[in-house]
Specification:
single chain; 704 residues; mainly beta; Maltoporin, Chain A; 5-stranded mixed sheet; 42 strands; 2% helix; globular; signal; receptor
Length: 704
């Protein structure tokens, strides 16, 4: 897969689409619907129109461009975070799950991520392959904070993030940028009307020599820059098949190679997705949509054990082949029940299966002593019904419920000897009994327009998430630390309430939301012992490491406040705007039994304070400037709250100059003041940081 992706034209880069203010006109040939949303540019919704009842929930919309990778663009939403602070250029891919509202704790996603209706979490591990998205092809994102997605399926215990493809029209856009440490970003988009439909092809490429992740004062001779190389390709075709019905077909593929900054730390991740969807948007009759999709993933990763003086390293573990597959379908119908009433009825199904193949206990760097193979399958299928009503002009009520059936099947873990004196001898061969269950969830809320400018809203919800195959069956290591899987994990269940106020006076918008969430059976990596020693499920752990196991905690309680503000200063200077956002999260663990030690502590990787601000001036031709500020509060690396990651304040900037209508020159700075943003601390207190100061200069051109 990698060879044909890398053969794509490498003419483009992460430079913003000039003149892009997020406004996208509806295209008659594709019948896409333009929806005006709270204090953000209009977005294009690729499925059925937004629901009447969505006004009751805390939402935020973001217009995308190629200025940032998708994952970094989403970071402007307070309390939306990944398990680690690092991005996809230096993080381990398996640590990039996404969550909201302080409901983190491990690397699996607790927020449901969708692209044009298709779930995006890795079928095996629940993390997200961020290099697999071409920023040019995605026009906008819609974030709904709070659990219980209701109509979008299981998995949204913290919220739902929807990505929408954009309609490119007849356009070719390409560019190139060069950055610090021999970094290159490239992307290209080709859009053409084909018959009565729209064909869009997009591709991206990124590489860099990388930086040394370990902080300078702790480096040894083994530490080196963590290089990366990533590429992706996406093809989308949208065409009407009748007056009200549209066909959407999508195929995308990606490849992702990274190193973690020393020998035996390389990893590779690749995948391909395909989906087909029919959408009927009748103005007067039944509306409906039907979706089917497939995900194919594979990754391999190696782990090295570094000596305390960081002057030697040896291979200790490798996952040399982890294939997984996700299959799914979803349908929804909206019968015509009246001008002020909306009814949604539907169902969904998702199946995942995967296997991890591992070598460990290396006699030398090339000869493993033992091999492990583990995996299984999961399935969920359910149905939902949701109703919303405009009671009076100022009041909307909404509510609904769903029932889901789940199963965990075919689980196994098998270990064998690989070298003398007993090559091929079976050390363990475990077959895990299948399990199944039923989950009943629901949500409801209201939106009341107190005045033309002020809206009061409130919501309550229940949601759930099934453990991933990774959590159930796959042990793993990070440096000297080892974590065992747990085939007996129960599903996570969330219950929550929120109350919010939205003020919009035209030039000023302020949104404030207070929330309370309780995540029962929260899955976390619970520290059980310190090395050295032999431990079940992982084997030997050195004196520099810790032994943990995935456990269901009693609960995580999270309560807090979110504030979003936006100021349109166009009356002062055309194209000038300011946005400021802040979140406060007070989260703590409730636990007993073997996890009593973490009772009352803050969940790992959860900061209390998170804030962002941006000042942006941009003309229609792309000439402009922007400054973005971001603060992330102190957080703990570990569940026992001993290893602390310091807070950090970073500044990014951008300057753009349009030479003419077709050519843009741009410079960008990431982490202007080269602040040390700590991403992780190992058991022997070795600190890893995120990306240092990075300078970019690039060109972008359009051909229409």
């Amino acid at each position: 897969m990698k060879k044909w992706i890398l053969a794509l034209p490498l003419a483009a880069v992460s430079v913003p689409v000039w003149g892009q203010d997020g406004h996208t006109e509806a295209d008659d040939s594709s019948n896409q619907i333009v929806i005006a949303c709270y204090r953000t540019p209009e977005i294009v919704v690729t499925g059925l129109p937004l629901s009447l009842g969505d006004a009751a929930y805390s939402t935020q919309n973001i217009a995308m461009s190629a200025v940032h990778p998708i994952e970094n663009a989403l970071r402007q939403v307070p309390n939306l975070q990944q398990f680690r602070r690092s991005d996809a250029r230096s993080a381990n891919p398996t640590s990039q799950g996404i969550t909201l509202r302080g409901l983190g704790g491990n690397a699996s996603s607790r927020a449901l991520l969708l692209l044009d209706g298709v779930p995006q979490a890795d079928p095996f591990g629940g993390w997200v392959a961020w290099p697999g998205y071409e920023s040019l092809a995605i026009g906008s994102a819609r974030i709904e904070r709070g659990g219980g997605s209701g109509t979008n399926g299981a998995g949204a215990v913290a919220g739902t993030i929807e990505l929408f493809s954009q309609n490119s029209g007849n356009l070719i856009e390409l560019g190139a940028a060069y950055g610090s440490r021999n970094s290159v970003d490239a992307d290209v988009l080709f859009g053409r009307e084909l018959g009565q439909g729209q064909l869009t092809i997009s591709a991206s490429y990124a590489r860099g020599d990388g930086f040394i992740p370990i902080i300078e004062s702790q480096r040894g001779s083994v530490d080196r820059p963590a290089e990366y190389e990533q590429a992706g390709l996406a093809v989308r075709y949208v065409a009407p098949i009748s007056e009200n019905t549209e066909l959407q077909a999508n195929v995308r593929a990606f490849t992702d190679d990274r190193e973690r900054g020393f020998a035996f730390s390389e990893n590779h991740n690749d995948g391909a997705d395909a989906s087909i969807r029919l959408v009927n948007r009748s103005d007067t009759g039944w509306q409906w949509s039907a979706l089917g999709y497939v995900q194919i993933r594979n990754f391999d990763v190696s782990f090295g054990g570094v000596a305390d003086d960081r002057n030697s390293v040896s291979r200790v573990f490798e996952q040399f082949n982890v294939p997984s597959t996700g299959l799914g379908a979803r349908f929804e119908v909206r019968p015509p029940v009246g001008d002020s009433i909306e009814l949604r009825i539907g169902g969904d199904w998702r199946r995942t299966e995967g296997v991890t193949n591992e070598n460990f206990f290396f006699a030398d760097n090339d000869t493993p002593r033992r091999s492990r193979r583990a995996g299984g399958s999961t399935a969920t299928y359910g149905g939902f019904i949701e109703a919303s009503a405009q009671i009076v002009d100022a009041l909307i009520l909404t509510g609904g419920g769903r029932v889901d059936f789940w199963s965990i099947d075919n689980g196994f873990r098998r270990e064998i000897e690989l070298i003398n004196p007993f090559p091929g001898a079976v050390r363990s061969d475990e077959q895990f009994a299948g399990r199944s269950g039923t989950e009943f969830t629901g949500r409801g809320g209201f939106a009341f327009n107190v005045t033309d400018e002020l809206k009061l809203r409130g919501a309550a919800y229940l949601g759930w998430r099934l453990p991933t195959l990774n959590e159930l069956f796959r042990p793993f290591r990070v440096g000297d630390d080892a974590t065992a899987a747990n085939e007996l994990l129960e599903p996570e269940r969330v219950k929550g309430v929120e109350l919010g106020l939205d003020w919009d006076s035209g030039n000023v918008a302020i949104g404030v939301t207070a929330f309370y969430n309780q995540l029962d059976n929260a899955i976390a990596n619970v520290t059980l012992a310190n090395g050295p020693g032999l431990f079940p499920g992982v084997g030997f752990v050195s004196g520099a490491g810790t032994f943990s196991q995935r456990q269901n905690l009693d609960s995580i309680e999270s309560k807090g406040l979110e504030i979003d503000t936006e100021f349109d200063l166009g009356d002062l200077t055309d194209g000038l705007s300011v946005r400021v956002a802040y979140s406060y999260v007070n989260a703590d663990v409730k636990s007993s039994g073997v996890a009593t030690a973490v009772n009352g502590l803050r969940p790992a990787q959860i900061p209390r304070h998170n804030a962002s601000a941006s000042l942006r001036w941009e003309q229609d031709n792309g000439t402009g400037a922007a400054v973005s500020l971001r603060y992330i509060g102190q957080q703990f690396e570990d569940d026992v709250n001993i290893q602390s990651l310091n807070d950090a304040f970073t500044v990014d900037g951008r300057l753009g100059f349009a030479v003419n209508d077709s050519l843009l020159v741009e410079t960008r700075l990431e982490n202007l003041f080269n602040v040390r943003v700590e991403a992780g601390i190992s058991g022997n207190n070795i600190i890893e940081r995120t990306f240092p100061r990075t300078f970019w200069i690039g060109l972008r051109t359009k051909i229409e």
